[in-house]
Amino acid sequence: MLTVLSPAKSLNLEPQTQTSKFSMPEFLNEAETLVKKLKRMSKKSLRELMGISDDLAELNHSRFNEWSRPFSKDNAKQAILTFNGDVYQGLDAKRFKARDLSFAQDHLRILSGLYGVLRPLDLMQAYRLEMGTSLVTRSGKSLYDFWGDKITESLNRDLAKQKQKAFVNLASNEYFKGIRPRLLDGPVITPVFKEIKDGKSRTIALFAKQARGRMAAWMIQNRVDKPEQLTNFNLDDYEYQADESTAEKLTFSRPQPPPVGKK
């Protein structure tokens, strides 16, 4: 069973001493092709392409121009320890032991606009490039065109090594669109997280992101590798709702927590 996550815009670039193990991204050549194109863009062009502030455009202009191969532990860092957004605060990979990281390396994949797909211990250099970016390349008018079937084919190669031929989709819609579900060699199971307030349930983006990370961590630390085990997830007061679920969509809900600082 293989789980897919989205990346994060927020990054932790501090040196880490948690593990000395690392691997290299499968699609470094493709990433370099994109970086070469992005290096030629002005700060103004990057700002307009990505819809970001002047400060972020300047930061990412610098990052793309500093991006270089070969990757090493001196100029890059493992992906699972670098991404630092809401999903990764839920994942909290700094708690992982060596055997957790080993299981994650085999069972977790991180989708990326720049790198295509990353294993947890793949080295990466800092970047910002969302999968939904309309970057024109020889392949088409978007990153979806650029990546085509490559991400899907990579996931299928990894799935072939798994005993259970199923995908768990903990990615956002933007990133999952980089996959061609009809070409996958196994069913896709998508957990959905809802908050209940005043008798009504709804998905709240912040809580859903954190829950995806929490579920990914729970799967890693409990060695969850069978689809039927997923319904046992019960962290942070979430409970599986069988009557709202199907084989492809697993619904978990809980009473909506109060705002931070309130009881």
TrEMBL record:
Pfam families hit by this protein: H2O2_YaaD
Protein name stated in the entry: UPF0246 protein Pan241w_45730
Gene Ontology cellular component list: cytosol
Native species: Gimesia alba
PANTHER family to which the protein is assigned, alphabetical: PEROXIDE STRESS RESISTANCE PROTEIN YAAA, PEROXIDE STRESS RESPONSE PROTEIN YAAA
Source lineage: Bacteria, Pseudomonadati, Planctomycetota, Planctomycetia, Planctomycetales
Any one of the GO BP annotations: response to hydroperoxide
NCBIfam families: PRK02101.1-3
Stretch forming the signal peptide: none
Family, per entry: Belongs to the UPF0246 family.
Domain of life: Bacteria
